[in-house]
Amino acid sequence: MKAAYIERFGSPDTICFGSLPKPKPTGSQVLVRVKAVSVNPVDTYIRAGKLAVGTPMPLIVGCDLAGVVEAVGPEATRFAKGDRVWGSNQGISGRQGTFAEFAAVDQQWLYPTPENVSDQEAAAVAMVGLTSHLGLFREAQLKAGENVFVHGGSGGIGSCVVQMAKAVGARVLTTAGSDEKVKICRRLGATMVVNYKTQDVDVAIEKFGPIHVWFENLREHDFERVLRHLALRGRIVVMAGRESHPVFPMGLFYWKDAQLLGYALLNASAEEQRKSAAEINRWMSKGKLRPRIDRVLPLSEAAAAHQLQEENTLGKAGTLAGKIVLVP
Fold first, then answer.
1. Helix H or strand E segment including 176
2. 277 domain residue, yes or no
3. Rounded alpha-carbon distances, angstroms, from residue 118 to 36, 65, 175, 269, 281
4. Stretch 266-289: mean pLDDT, rounded?
5. Number of structural domains the chain divides into
6. Which of 2, 79, 153, 256 could bond 185 through an S-S bridge, CB–CB 3.0 to 4.6 Å?
7. Contacts of 113 (CB under 8 A, 6+ apart)
8. 199 in helix, strand or coil?
9. Distance CA 69, CA 81 (A)
10. Spatial CB neighbours of 47, under 8 Å, sequence gap ≥ 6
């Protein structure tokens, strides 16, 4: 089978595209004929060797996938041949990744794809959807009527946070870096959108009202600013910034009865992720949640896709408004 893989950690150009043996499902694994995959920032960290995740070599890159069940292992009971599925959490903990024509995935990390959802949409929503749902609901316990702030509402995480918060009756303030991205955020259902290049975000937040859930998806943190805008008993959700060492204003934090909630998707149990996936499927099937796909590329361009993702994650290029999806 054709696959995008690495034989050593390094820059995007270490990604090879060539033939590897087709996997066979064992135990409770399911063999998926891959129809679409998507790129996440964490994929680039794994490829670069920045995360100690027990990876075998050669390593097929990628965490997310969507496709059709080709075969099932002897202990797999949740899916049958022909079922459409999506999932994440691959390419780590000794598991091979998803950027290939076929992937053997344990059934606990797979979920049924709704009939009215495309494989490209299912792959694009996988990691960003699960991450957003866990942060908003398992961690922050978001409720109807509360105010949510998230940066970059046209991006992968931001667009999911906007739509999920709206789905439960919360108000959402988000930012965007261009007038076109502002329009995208409004179409997604954001209550207020601020162009951070031409408008004062702090003034906009003051007009919007105290923030009950601040979803911090930036790699650098300014907790002084966050806490200024946080409501009494507000919650700060942190899911990015592995190398960040911000100053923390402890007095303002405890005076507001605030909570700081850090989490990583890859630490969530299969059961926790399955609960989030069920809600994601319900919203997608009703048209209340659609992932933002910026572009679709052939799987053979995996190295270029990683380069583009790094330019936007690390270099802040601003040339993406959603996910990069690849198709075999």
1. strand 171-176
2. no
3. 9, 12, 28, 26, 12
4. 97
5. 2
6. 153
7. 66, 84, 85, 86, 119, 122, 281
8. coil
9. 5
10. 6, 9, 10, 12, 14, 15, 61, 306
Runs of H (alpha helix) within 2-98: 41-48
The verdict on 145 and 241 lying in the same domain is yes
pTM above 0.85, yes or no: yes
Domain annotation covers residue 214 = yes
Give 83-139 pLDDT, tens digit per residue. 999 999 999 988 999 999 999 999 999 999 999 999 999 999 999 999 999 999 999
> Tens of pLDDT along 15-26?
999 999 999 999
Mean pLDDT of 221-242: 95
In a domain, 60, yes or no: yes
The residue behind tokens 């995480």 is 157
Token pair in block for residue 241: 């910034």
Same domain (yes/no): 149, 230: yes
State the residue range of the domain holding 34.
2-125+290-327
Residues 60 and 110 in one domain: yes
